Amino acid sequence: MSTEEDAKWLQWVTHQFETIAGKDGEINLQEFKAALNVKESFFAERFFTLFDSDGSGTITLQELRDALTLLIHGDPMDKLKFLFQVYDVDGKGSEGREGRGERGVGSGASPHSASSPRGTGSGSIDVDELRTVLQSCMRESAISLPEEKLDQLTLALFESADKDCNGAITFDELRDELQRFPGVMENLTIRCGPVSGVGTARVEVRFQVRRGCGQWLNFDCSFIAVLMLRRGLTWLRATWLAQVLPLDQNIQFHQLMGYVVVALSLVHTVAHVVNFALQAQSEASPFRFWELLLTTRPGIGWVHGSASPTGVALLLLLLLMLACSSSCIRRSGNFEVFYWTHLSYLPMWILLILHGPNFWKWLLVPGILFFLEKIIGLAMSRMAALCIVEVNLLPSKVTHLLIERPPLFHYRPGDYLYLNVPSIARYEWHPFTISSAPEQKDTIWLHVRSEGQWTNRLYESFKTSRPADCGSKQLSRSLWKGRSQRRPQVSEMSSENHLFCNIKCYIDGPYGTPTPRIFASEHAVLIGAGIGITPFASILQSIVHRHQKRKHICPSCQHSWMDSIQDEDMKLHKVDFIWINRDQRSFEWFVSLLTKLEMDQAEMAQEGPFLELHMYMTSALGKNDMKAIGLQMALDLLAKKEKKDSITGLQTRTQPGRPDWNKVFQKVAAEKKGKVQVFFCGSPALAKVLKGHCEQFGFKFFQENF
């Protein structure tokens, strides 16, 4: 066999030993036979005798490894010495060791002793010993020949090797005889287990499958943490690596890596189960199947034989995490189930360290980076408590929070943060997109839609029972009313839905998203569906602030104009904003902001609008529907007369039904305002449709995950 095959076989033997050896780490002759799956007991007994260097009647893994390593990697002379000792039986080798008190090779010396061959025999091989060896060789090779033929083979080999005709073959004579056959001395090998055929293939395939899956799991289970280094990814987005690495797909890659881990774990587990089942069926195995699978008794693993039970626990945790990570769980109001089960990555890493002897090496660097980021985030978020200072309860159960902004909290449009409100849930952190512009210095805006347990508790805490720290204190109301006049408001709310508060909260962030690329675009198409407008709210407000900085007014005639020179941070020539909502009330979230944008557009003396709004209400029947044609005609006429839409109050007419994306993108392409990039925030189903149209028109497509 080749050196590579011998090395693989050595790994297989070591694994078999670890599987069968008990807590004392030693095996006897019967266990040794079971470990090597030998057909003929003669060679098992001879090998056992020679490997047992201390003559204790058992061999340890170290004794086995020392002997086999030298026989695999040693020089031809070492292997020949061992072969001679195997053949030098003196008529006793096939009887076994029990009751004879035989010593090992050279009375305690290893089979690779540098001295002349010593062992249990006389130092020479007679004709009877040679016949016993050849007979065992025939049985091991599954060859059946008549006794006469066996005698002829024995005499042929003996007479050829016994050069001095003294009736015995010495070590030197055996060496000279083997040298007559080219390549034999150089390629001597030992193969006590199955050496060929289907049996060997199955054993080695199972072994390689287990090890292969295990190695991939070492990598996957450590690298999966790298994909969630939010601070690191935010920093990388500001470097040239953002143009090379798919940083915006980190969530998708994290999910894909999770599925790969599950698949590899199942294959890894099945391979072990099959192996355990076969071992349990072996008469020589001292363990039953359930002991191999669920207990530490077989001693499998590098930490007190814990590989099997830790493997079972890992698989159960992994399947639980997979089930609770499904979209039906996360998006059906049970986000907390997903959140808490995902925290089981901590016990999983501990179990993996106990399960696999090399996993800690793979986890070392990613684990340090991961926990360092967690520590930094925890320290920064807990450095000082913030306050929710104002709350607006908007239609469709949307909670608009205004949080005081920390002095050193710097973010970019479209970034998101994690929010913790101890009065709602002490240990829960939930991600939300920042809907205010970075230029807004006093407060941070968050728009939270009530879709899960935590978000519903947040909304109801303000809706039903006014929190203890919320009220209508005259001083607070006057203070925040003055501040509110300096920033655009969401909508006109009734006093009972507009609260001034002093509720403690913590934030962790900000973290980056692909939306800041909008400013580097030439023609940006922003598409928001429902609450998916929130990242674009920040973008649109930032655009307003930047345009205000470029606006000039003549002190004499009050004439206003805009600088035509664009800054390095914003290369936009045109922005199309498309907002799709189900019903009329959903538009109230950001109507005041959009109204201000339209007013600024009217004051800009440019060829065509820089920002163009497109509003769609999916619940309204289309203009071609007989049940709605009269209403839609009336709405069009009134909008032209009053120069505003009756549904939203904007100058932009709200279109009924869903957009015809083919027509929308044809119009965008025909404007030729520069390279078009489409940014979307909404449902995955609509994202798939939009991506297909973008590919058709040659537009770049970016999706915001929220």
Outline of this structure?
The protein is α/β, with parallel strands linked by helices and 706 residues long.
Structure description:
By secondary structure, this protein is an alpha/beta fold. Helices cover 47% and strands 13% of the residues. The chain is built from 24 helices and 16 strands. The strands form 4 sheets. It has a 6-stranded antiparallel sheet with strand order 6-5-8-3-4-7, sandwiched between helices. A 6-stranded parallel sheet has the order 14-13-12-9-15-16, sandwiched between helices. A two-stranded antiparallel sheet has the order 1-2. Helix 2 (29-36) packs across helix 3, helix 9 runs antiparallel to helix 11 (250-281) and helix 9 (197-226) packs parallel to helix 17 (359-381). It starts with a helix and ends with a strand. One of its GO terms (biological process) is superoxide anion generation.
What tags apply to this protein structure?
alpha/beta, Recoverin, domain 1, Elongation Factor Tu (Ef-tu), domain 3, 24 helices, 16 strands, elongated
**Biggest beta sheet summary:** 6 strands, antiparallel
Give the terminus-to-terminus CA distance.
58 Å
Number of helices: 24
Radius of gyration in whole Å, from Cα?
Answer: 39 Å
Shape descriptor: elongated
GO biological process, one term: endothelial cell proliferation
Membrane topology: Multi-pass membrane protein
Organism: Ursus maritimus
Biased composition (Basic and acidic residues): 93-103
List the helices and strands and how they pair.
Elements: H1 3-20, E1 26-27, H2 29-36, H3 41-51, E2 59-60, H4 61-73, H5 76-87, H6 127-140, H7 147-161, H8 171-179, H9 197-226, H10 230-237, H11 250-281, H12 289-294, H13 307-324, H14 327-330, H15 335-342, H16 345-355, H17 359-381, E3 386-394, E4 398-404, E5 416-420, E6 430-433, E7 443-449, H18 453-463, H19 474-484, E8 498-511, E9 523-529, H20 534-549, E10 551-553, E11 560-562, E12 574-581, H21 591-603, E13 611-617, H22 629-642, E14 654-656, H23 661-671, E15 676-681, H24 684-697, E16 700-703
Parallel strand pairs: 9-12, 9-15, 12-13, 13-14, 15-16
Antiparallel strand pairs: 1-2, 3-4, 3-8, 4-7, 5-6, 5-8, 10-11
